Amino acid sequence: MPRSYDDDGVRFAYPESWELVREEDAGEVRLTVSGDGTSFWSLALFPSGPAANEVVETAVDAFRDEYDELDVYCAEGSLCGFPVEGRELEFVCLELINSAWLKGFETPGFTVLVFYQGTDHELQQTRSVLEAITTSLQLLIPGGSPDPRYPADLD
């Protein structure tokens, strides 16, 4: 049975065996869920409302500063009914190929950044879980997604 987070204007489901950590700094909220391995899913809420493309590009720049070998691909789509500014990243860390996804969008209440990553080997098992968490995301604000979409295959 999946757990759910329901606070800070958002709701999402995540595996019962994963740990959730909530951090807040200067009004910005970051929620991160992770299991035993390297894969994790993170949601950042920016009430100051920076542009989604600015938030995503700042994150990409941080990856560029950290990793010499980084490939960046544009990714389109929508999340919670809002158009997404997205990037798919591939990079090498400790001789392992890693992949990350950045999905930013603007709402009437805040700007959202969804970020998840893992090693490619581990992602063979966890990518569907990370995508299910993303799919379960709902906004509890006007203009957000109204219906729960919690997937059953989170564990």
How would you sum up this structure in a few lines?
Helices cover 21% and strands 46% of the residues. It has 155 residues and is an alpha+beta fold.
Account of the 3D structure:
This protein is α+β, with helices and mostly antiparallel strands. The chain has one domain (3-139): Mog1/PsbP, alpha/beta/alpha sandwich (Protein Transport Mog1p, Chain A, 3-Layer(aba) Sandwich). The chain is built from 2 helices and 12 strands. The strands form 3 sheets. A 7-stranded antiparallel beta sheet has the order 3-4-5-11-10-9-6, with helices on both faces. Strands 1-2-12 form a 3-stranded antiparallel beta sheet. Strand 10 and strand 11 form a beta hairpin. The protein is globular. The N and C termini lie close together (8 Å). The model is unreliable at 144-155 (pLDDT under 50).
Order of SSEs: EEEEEHEEEEEEHE
Our count of helices gives 2
Strand order of the largest sheet: 3-4-5-11-10-9-6
CATH topology: Protein Transport Mog1p, Chain A
Query: What is the number of independent domains?
Result: 1
Radius of gyration, in Å, reads 15 Å
Low-pLDDT segments, ≥5 res: 144-155
Secondary-structure arrangement, i.e. CATH architecture: 3-Layer(aba) Sandwich
Structural class category: alpha+beta
Straight-line distance between termini: 8 Å
Helix content: 10-25%
Q: DSSP strand (E) fraction?
A: over 45%
Coarse morphology: globular
What does the average pLDDT come to?
89
Largest sheet: 7 strands, antiparallel
* Strand element count: 12
Query: What CATH first level would be assigned?
Result: Alpha Beta
Could you state the CATH homologous superfamily?
Mog1/PsbP, alpha/beta/alpha sandwich
